[in-house]
Design a protein that fits this description.
By secondary structure, the protein is an alpha+beta fold. It has 5 domains: 92 residues, GIY-YIG endonuclease; 138 residues, no CATH class; 119 residues, 2-Layer Sandwich (Nucleotidyltransferase, domain 5), CATH 3.30.420; 166 residues, 2-Layer Sandwich (Nucleotidyltransferase, domain 5); 50 residues, DNA polymerase, domain 1 (Orthogonal Bundle). It contains 21 helices and 20 strands. Strands 13, 14, 15, 16, 17, 18, 19 and 20 form an 8-stranded mixed sheet that branches. Strands 7, 8, 9, 10, 11 and 12 form a 6-stranded mixed sheet that branches. The protein has a 3-stranded antiparallel sheet with strand order 2-1-3. A hairpin with a 7-residue loop joins strand 19 and strand 20. Helix 14 packs across helix 17 and helix 15 packs parallel to helix 16. The protein is globular and about 80 Å long. The structure holds iron/sulfur cluster. The site of iron/sulfur cluster has 14 residues, from helix 6 and helix 7.
């Protein structure tokens, strides 16, 4: 028997009336507290019956009693279809960020490869977030290193320019990239525009996983070139075909239906939920997306549904197939919505048997593993620290750890970072960043030496453990700095990422082979690195600290680079000499403010007339 919705002790007469007259159509409902703040937004096929389930005790989610005790009013928005309701619900949640809706905000940025095929002589670019700017985005890649590795093998096969537009237009001779076969030198017209365009399109096809068709096409073109006795062009195409085949063979992951899939794993314990998605592109596992561990009750299907809607609404790449561990009630509506968004068929399914079930199982185990390591490190930092001291044979218990990283591009805007963790937690007040002062050029060891020396010169407030991001080389630098400064009683380690091909247990039966990142720990006086993978919580702690140092260094480096880029941009504006540039900087403070200034404000600067202001404004907008 259905519970009486009107027995709920929280119901006011006003609310009872409102629910009684709620529409019986698809739409969105917005629950508000006594101050009129929206505290929950949901969508339903039948609004009235959905609302009744909250107040009638038939909704068993743990947050429902708290929610209904605060609801004073409900607004309804009727839609034609459930799909419209879903889109509206997503938009409204983004706008209001209601307290009781699950917040799947994920600040971790993933990497994408961007190609704008509309620009003359397109190139690969590594970016964090895709924009709706008409360019093509490939990925996501779970780390910058995996995206860079893809570019490393792509660049010789598809030798697109690596330089910026300005350099492309101003070079008189090709740069080193051409010499080493990584660029076809459009700057000096060593490739014609049509051939270059073909090259860029082939690269995009490859990144989209359309390798089969690409190879057929390349073979046709090679044959045509040979028929026309253009043996040089035929040889270039032959080499490209061989490289692509070699790469595909090396990856040996031609799996399933070579489709793009996101496969979700969910692990739940008590009221904590860990979700991850295994990312498969063109049949290859390219990584996984880990969502933050959240405290939430309720049905797994509902949680996954909420996450999927938020994730793909936020410009994430939409694959052809989404596999979830449980069937979602609104799976068909989500598929319809995503199909429309992508412009191609998207299916949202679950699988009970076959390869689909195996990969779902793998995602599931990944989620469990992530949960365990995350929780272990969070719940028991003392134990983690003790194990760390024991396994690495440290002199001290590493309660306070300082970790260093260097960030630069070819030695430019070189910076160093230091992050401090105490008892497993970041101590942000003790973070430091360093602008490299004594090293010119790409000398990472020299930079590390400078940073460590500046930090430990005063010998105050020393940590228990000093960690550097890198291998034996960086470790050697750290040891010699401490020796030069006569600082003892600090343990020193280095953490280095290494790659290894490995088959996944479940997928041993299938053709999958995945390239996994392994972190190795180097210790002074020991030839071989230590493998901490059997103590995941300790490894996880060190990885977390290293990633934080990396993030901190990169963000500082990026800030300096942006500043520098903007300064150079000012130098390039036609008709703006030193005096006017100085006046602009004096008025606005920095180049970033100049770029954002409206034309009218630019005009206010001494020596900048209407025409010059328009010229500056147009130039900066174009860039
Ligand atoms: S060879 Fe020319 S086009 Fe290619 S990266 Fe160098 S400067 Fe740019």
């Amino acid at each position: 028997m259905m519970a009486d919705p009107f027995c709920c002790k929280f119901m006011t007469d006003y609310l009872k009336q409102k629910i009684k007259h709620a529409p019986r159509t698809p739409g969105v409902y917005m629950m508000k507290d006594e101050e009129g703040t929206v505290i929950y937004i949901g969508k339903a096929r039948d609004i009235r019956s959905r609302i009744r389930s909250y107040f009638g005790g038939t909704d068993s989610r743990f947050m429902v009693p708290f929610l209904v005790s605060r609801v004073c009013d409900i607004d309804f928005i009727v839609t034609e279809t459930e799909k419209e309701a879903l889109i509206l619900e997503n938009n409204l949640i983004k706008e209001h960020r209601p307290k009781y809706n699950v917040d799947f905000r994920d600040d971790k940025a993933y990497f994408h490869i961007r190609m704008d095929l509309r620009e003359p002589f397109p190139r690969f670019q590594l970016v964090r977030r895709p924009k709706k700017d008409g360019a093509k985005y490939f990925g996501p890649y779970p780390s910058s290193s995996s995206a860079k590795e893809t570019l490393r093998f792509l660049q010789p096969i598809f030798p697109l320019r690596t330089c910026r537009k300005q350099e492309l237009n101003s070079r008189k001779r090709p740069c080193l990239e051409y010499e080493i076969g990584r660029c076809s030198a459009p700057c000096c017209h060593l490739i014609d525009a049509a051939a270059y365009e073909g090259l860029a399109r082939d690269a995009a096809a490859f990144l989209e996983g359309r390798t089969k068709r690409l190879l057929v096409d390349l073979r046709d073109r090679m044959k045509n070139a040979a028929d026309q006795m253009n043996y040089e062009a035929a040889a270039v195409l032959r080499d490209r075909i061989v490289s692509i085949e070699h790469t595909l063979e090396k990856q040996r992951m031609a799996s399933m239906d070579a489709r793009d899939q996101d496969v979700y794993g969910v692990y739940r314990e008590d009221d904590m939920t860990q979700i991850c998605a295994v990312l498969i592109r063109g049949g290859n596992i390219v990584g996984q997306k880990i969502f933050p561990l959240i405290r939430i009750g309720g049905e797994t299907a509902e949680i996954v549904s909420a996450l999927v809607k938020r994730y793909y609404d936020a410009d994430a790449y939409i694959p052809a197939e989404i596999l979830t561990p449980v069937a979602m009630e609104d799976g068909a509506v989500i598929a319809e919505w995503l199909t429309e968004k992508k412009g191609r068929a998207v299916s949202v399914l679950t699988r009970q048997k076959g390869k689909g079930a195996a990969i779902l199982d793998m995602a599931q185990r990944n989620a469990e593993n992530i949960f365990r390591t995350e929780r272990l490190a969070r719940d028991n930092p003392e134990k983690t620290i003790r194990i760390l001291a024991e396994k690495l044979h440290l002199k001290n218990l590493p309660v306070r750890i300082e970790c260093f990283d260097i960030s630069n591009i070819g030695g430019r805007q070189a910076v160093g970072s230091m992050v401090t963790f105490e008892s497993g937690l970041p101590l942000k007040a003790r973070y430091r960043r360093f602008r490299i002062k004594t090293i010119d050029g790409a000398d990472d060891y020299g930079m590390m030496y400078e940073v460590l020396k500046r930090r430990y010169l005063k010998k105050d407030d020393l940590p228990d453990l000093l960690m550097v991001d890198g291998g034996k080389g960086q470790l050697g630098v750290a040891v010699s700095v401490l020796k030069d400064l006569a600082v003892d009683n600090i343990d020193v380690i280095a953490i280095a990422k290494e790659k290894r091909d490995e088959r996944d247990d479940v997928l041993k039966k299938g053709p999958f082979q995945v390239k996994k990142d392994y972190d190795r720990i180097y210790l002074p006086g020991r030839k071989d690195p230590v493998n901490l993978s059997h103590w995941p919580a300790t490894l996880f702690l060190l990885q977390r600290i290293r990633d934080e140092a990396h993030r901190f260094a990169i963000s500082y480096h990026r800030k300096l680079k942006e500043k520098q880029d903007l300064q150079s941009l000012l130098d390039e504006i036609p008709g703006i000499g030193g005096v006017r540039k100085k006046a602009l900087l004096k008025y606005f403070g920095d180049a970033a403010h100049i770029r954002e200034a409206p034309q009218e404000t630019l005009q206010k600067v001494e020596g900048i007339g209407k025409a010059t202001a328009a010229q500056i404004y147009d130039y900066l907008r174009k860039q």
